[in-house]
Specification:
With about 280 residues, the chain is an all-alpha fold. The protein has 10 helices and no strands. It has one domain.
């Protein structure tokens, strides 16, 4: 008796499909927002800063080389809290609830804190010994980090949704761009890529030495330099956001353009390159 072979029927694989529910965050009303800890802490920080700078003439023009008045400098702990709360308010889409006049006054004070650390590099002279280099790092890093926190805070405010035009202060934006570019060129690139370090003993510098220098590069372990690096690559990303919102001055665009290209010629700065990519493709 002959049996015909039945054709093989492939077994259907059942795939379990899970439906993921994405939580929808409801926007808080103005009354609810004003009762949140974030809003209250942010406003308390602003109030404390205004109290400390009440004798300061914010409209007085100063030369770039002039020293920033000490009363304009925000204490480290206060600025860090302000920066943290500004980030939260931006995430909550709630920065618009803060009166714009207060934000403008705050940005003018932050600009002075940025200026104080704009032309200062924590990288010591190559001829200095180790102790001198450490001392210089400690003395300068406080000013640089204050400027970095002030820059990040300013951009959290400016890149928040639905902000009025009056808060996009050209002087503040230009100052942030100049600060970021200077610190990248004079602090970050030399720290992460030996090709960018100044060697006072070398009389002749050949391009052929670049590969040799990079072959012996050591990982950056200085915590303050790493912290600054993280702040700066965040700043570059925030500047890319700002370019989608506000037209910058010609000077700022010029600096931002070179800032967006330069990281791709530097080794060991992958995160910065990703932020720079956003900047050049905006």
């Amino acid at each position: 008796m002959l049996y015909e072979e039945s054709p093989l029927v492939p077994r259907t694989k059942l795939r379990k499909v899970e439906r993921k529910l994405i939580p929808v965050v409801e926007k808080l009303s103005t009354e609810e927002l004003m009762e949140t800890n974030t809003y209250l802490r942010f406003n308390r920080s602003i109030e404390a800063i205004f109290d400390n700078t009440e004798d300061l003439d914010l409209n007085m023009e100063q030369d770039d080389d002039a020293d920033v008045p000490p009363e304009a400098l925000i204490p480290k702990y206060q600025l860090q809290e302000l920066c943290s709360e500004a980030a939260k308010l931006k995430t909550l889409c709630a920065m618009e609830s803060v009166p714009s006049d207060r934000l403008v006054s705050l940005l003018n004070i932050l600009e002075k804190n940025i200026r104080d650390g704009t032309r200062v590099s924590p990288i010591a002279d190559p001829d200095d010994d180790e102790d001198e280099s450490k001392l210089w790092l400690e003395l300068t890093m406080e000013r640089v980090m204050r400027a970095a926190d002030a820059s990040v805070t300013s951009l959290y405010i400016m890149t928040s949704p639905n902000m009025p035009k009056k808060i996009y202060l050209e002087d503040v934006i230009d100052r942030i761009v100049v600060f970021t570019k200077y610190q990248l060129q004079n602090t970050i690139y030399p720290s992460f890529d030996p090709v960018y370090r100044t060697d006072s003993k070398a009389k002749d510098i050949f391009i052929g030495n670049a590969r040799k220098k990079r072959a012996h590069v050591k990982e950056v372990r200085e915590k303050s330099i790493l912290t600054l690096y993280n702040k700066l690559h965040e700043l570059v990303g925030l500047l890319a956001e700002l370019l989608n919102i506000q037209v910058l001055t010609d000077n700022a665009v010029l600096h931002a353009s070179s800032m967006g290209v330069a990281p791709f010629f530097v080794e060991n700065v992958n995160e910065l390159q990703l932020s720079a990519l956003k900047l050049v493709t905006t």
